[in-house]
Amino acid sequence: MNKRILVTGVAGFVGSNLAKHFLDAGYSVVGIDNLSAGTVDNVDARVEFHKQDICDAEIYSQFHNADAIFHLAAKSSLTDCLTKPLEAARVNVLGTLNILEAARRAKAPKFVYADTSAEYEGINEFPTPETQVRPIGVYAASKHGGAAFCDSYRELYGMNLTMVRYFNVYGPAQDWRRVVPPVMSAFIIRMLRGERPVIYGNGEKRRDFIYVDDVNALHQVILEDPRSAGKVFNVGSGTNFSVNEIYELIEGLLKTGLKPIYKPDLPGEAHVTLADITNARHLGWKPKVEIHEGLRRSICYIQERVLDAVKAGLNQPSAFSA
Ligand SMILES: NC(=O)c1ccc[n+]([C@@H]2O[C@H](COP(=O)([O-])OP(=O)(O)OC[C@H]3O[C@@H](n4cnc5c(N)ncnc54)[C@H](O)[C@@H]3O)[C@@H](O)[C@H]2O)c1
After folding, report:
1. How far is the CA of 256 from the centre of ligand 1 (A)?
2. Is 157 a catalytic residue?
3. Do 157 and 104 touch, CB atoms closer than 8 A?
4. Which of 90, 153, 201, 314 sits in a 20 to 30 Å window from 108, CA-based?
5. Residue in 113, 120, 139, 153 annotated catalytic
6. Per-residue pLDDT tens for 234-277?
7. 249 in Cβ contact with 291 (< 8 Å)
């Protein structure tokens, strides 16, 4: 029988891509999302979709017979978390605890928690291994709270639990509607519209970017390889690019002649991220989509799926950050 995968945050960027990946691989997918940030357009028609809040007890019935839980639902916008810290903690800490409890009751054989490289905000070792964390911001602290309960449930109940710490994931369905959209979507949308991209600070912040298909592939390895149990994996490319370099790469593909506008820096962002991906490589995984190809695919998606919505005024991206 097909394995049944449950994905929380299935209407969001990474969750919707992950659901498609597992469906294409022959799994069946149950998805939960309250559509607070994600959109139903992102959800593949083959997903058994439930519009529910991860903090509600109503979700428990969806967990029966799930072979694996991928918990991605979260308040993931740094700006939203800063302005609404209690809501960030409610969703990212209590919501995660509720998902763990649902998984425990259903005796789910595998649990994967989507953690973040923001856990490393206070660490100055590059490339950064998984060994120590020092979250500082509200988003990082709230994701750390969720991770702490994951550790607790793994120890208390012997759950088969794996944590994945994403660096900057990019690709189709990135949330361009945010007040501060992810840097690649922000640049591509503005430049395709003939507008100059906006860079906050001097553009020398460096980020480890990983294309979403590579993230999906690692999740499948983690699901299938028993060596992943109880471990934490950085999910990055092991290389990084400055914001200026990303602008240059996109300009190289689009050839718009538009120069960036530099504005004062946004506070609270790390200067450098760079993943040590040795642990993930030991599972036999490696990133395959290099940056030009990833950007080319992102541009195609935005041309086909996003530009008309932006033109229709569904939302106007207004600020940009890495
Ligand atoms: N995208 C990245 O680069 C990145 C980096 C590090 C970590 N992460 C983590 O990966 C996960 C997915 O990130 P993403 O970029 O896809 O974010 P996203 O915001 O696109 O998706 C999150 C989804 O969770 C849903 N959600 C929020 N609160 C909910 C609630 N109370 N109940 C049910 N659903 C709720 C939202 O509607 C959204 O669809 C998150 O846990 C995030 O912290 C992402």
Report:
1. 32
2. no
3. yes
4. 90
5. 139
6. 999 999 999 999 999 999 999 999 999 999 998 778 899 999 99
7. yes
